[in-house]
Amino acid sequence: MSVETAKQTRKKMVYAFGGPGRAEGEGDMKILLGGKGAGLAEMTNLGIPVPPGFTITTEVCIEFYNNGKKWPEGLEEQVKEGLKRIEELMGAKFGDPDNPLLLSVRSGARVSMPGMMDTILNLGLNDQAVEGLARKTNNPRFAWDCYRRFIQMYSDVVLGVDHDHFEKLIQARKDQKGVKLDVELDAEDWKALVAQYKELVLRETGKPFPQDPWEQLKGAINAVFDSWNNPRAIKYREINGIPHDWGTAVNVMAMVFGNMGENSGTGVAFTRDPATGEKRFFGEYLPNAQGEDVVAGIRTPYPVSELERRMPEVYKQLEEIYKKLENHYKDMQDIEFTVQEGKLYMLQTRSGKRTARAAVKIAVDMVHEGLIDKKTALLRVDPKQLDQLLHPMIDPKAKYEVLAKGLPASPGAAVGRVVFTADDAEEWAKRGEKVILVRSETSPEDIGGMNVAQGILTSRGGMTSHAAVVARGMGKCCVAGAGDIVVDEEARRFRVGNVVVKEGDWITLNGTTGEVILGQVNLVEPSLAGEFAELMSWADEIRKLGVRANADIPRDAKVAREFGAEGIGLCRTEHMFFAPDRIKAVREMILADDAAGREKALAKLLPFQKNDFIGLFREMQGRPVTIRLLDPPLHEFLPQEEEQLQELSREMGVPVEKLRDRVESLKEFNPMLGHRGCRLGITYPEIYNMQVRAIFEAACELAKEGMTVVPEVMIPLVGTKKELEVLRKNVERVAEEVMAAAGVKLEYRIGTMIEVPRAAVTADEIAQVADFFSFGTNDLTQMTFGFSRDDAGKFLGAYLEQEILPADPFQTLDQEGVGQLVRMGVEKGRAANPNLKTGICGEHGGDPKSIEFCHRVGLTYVSCSPYRVPIARLAAAQAQIKYPR
Predict the structure, then answer these.
(1) Angle subtended by helix axes 818-832 and 777-785, to nearest 10
(2) Cα 467 from Cα 455, distance rounded (Å)
(3) What's the pTM value of the predicted model, to 2 decimals?
(4) β-pairing verdict for 14-17 and 53-56
(5) Fewest CB atoms within 10 A around its CB: which of 348, 397, 470, 699?
(6) Count of CA atoms in the C-beta half-sphere (13 A) of 89
(7) What is the per-residue pLDDT for 111?
């Protein structure tokens, strides 16, 4: 076999780019070449000046790990061929003491992972080559500056010697000379520092700094592969849902030098403003510097416009290139460039990271500029990012110190004074104080305090804890499960390490990041007009999935409607029962000895409930409103603590023994699976009868005013057809009575929550007596997994860490398990009742991945908290673009 034939049959592991002619790769080869490698290949093919180099593929990285961290056969030969090409194009030789070729080595995964691995520059220098470089360039300061940078970076990245040790030596040298900036040190200073650096490496590693350039290159390539699994990279992938088996590519490129004097420099820029989306060239430039100086913030850079003043010709070329790149990729680009003695080189282009505000503006502007179509614009904005736009945010310019971190349970930001009980929150808020409610965890009793607080902080609980779910519904900022915080409610203070925060102290919460900040930080208000409204109107044109909101009070309904909700998919009536003016009547009802006593207490609740529903119907202006009848077990409405029982006994004039007995009799081993939902409606029909009466009295009253009202009565926790049949008859009887008395005929629907696995499995039977199904995926997830939502926090972390589960099933729908029950429920239900409407009203209704699944299985609508309605509208449009139905 000839050498040529052997070359053709071997596996290609190295792809050349840069220099004249076409690259061996293309821009669409991100999976193989990584984002950076694909960008360098594409720039080469566009005729943009890129230093010659080569990319080692992501496949090699995977093989490296499978092979016990050894290079696959043939890689060394291909790397050496790639090197030879660079040497020929650069007219220099790798390892030559008189005319050395120097290299940069960078990582590049298929998606941008900032800070995964630090770059290594100036590779190939040693004690001989540095002298050759000084002679060749006639610039000893430049040569020794490159050598000290190389030792510093290589030692940090490859040999594990902390970067700070080197910085301290530089600082000592500057202090000794009485200068402030690195550029004020001369060749002799750098030469002396190189000697100190080499001593430091020997001391820290027990080995001298490697002098063989080939050994240096192999070490650097291995370090890039190793960096794929460093703790920072793993954490970043976990946060951003990036698979661990993708691997990273390695980019080896000829060095171009921005540190050869004032006619050289380096910069990083964006083709549009990444914070606002404004169409202006935005970036930074540092004269006489290398790339890491800009990124590391070692020196303060100038705005990129400074380059126009210093080198107008180079700036003009850069302008042409950035416009060409943006037009080619049809997206905002993040670019890196170096100027070496007046000649411009491009080192990177990639799609630029941007804020939600910028993402929306850039997408809409590019449609108007004719660069992209509406569908592309909709796919450009990550629905989850919209969260940033719907709440007050921390001013991007603000400087602050983070005290502790918890889970970003409900987005936005809040500033207020710390209080430790719901009652205090209400008391302080009445005086006009802004408060943040801090609890170990919240309970339904805290609803009043949560409602008046600016934000909520808990030391326990997860993303679907009571605090998190209620806060999201209210659009309140919430940080949950901040484990470093020790709350002492009696002493009215909390502690983080040595810091004690007392009642009345100011704190700031960032619910988008989970940060807890000491003191007051400036906030900025969101604006939803302009480009945002336009993007949303495009989403509504395209989507097939309806979007409703979960809302219990008129204020939430109003927010939902303003955010574009097409109805209410879940109104939880129990939240209305906790209000101070009603809880007494609820407790009377629970303590009554017979049905007559219960009915007497319920009669006091009826006008309250009726007014609630009038408010909701009025606010929704004829859109459908789904009202879930009482769901939680009755013990939740009675106090559990002795002190509260004594107080209630005095208030109601009931012996405390009777209260204790009632609390005891209502206790359940597993209340989640106990006497709740439709089971309450079957044993105490008078409760549901009162609620249905209130719904229809409200609807009839508004109908007489000329309003269209379509009430949808939802019966929770049904597991058998017979349960729904019995309760449906009761609902119809009361509804007909009320309508007859009012002389009004209304269109109404009766349906059920599908949240018990048996209901999904027998959906064909249940659908015969239902007008609609709403999948309560919070409970369906609990019962399918056998996880208690309130206790799962104790082990879910370990499950996610060990990849037993891909995501928290209470946040993103488990499509293989719970999702199959949803699919079965829809298919069986529709087979038995073709007109059956189907929706989802668990937390998953606002999660983009879950929404895509709901679209694919053919649901009629999703329902989510009011502040997630725009997210759901965008996610539903994206689902239709990807999976048209």
Answers:
(1) 120
(2) 10
(3) 0.81
(4) antiparallel
(5) 397
(6) 23
(7) 85
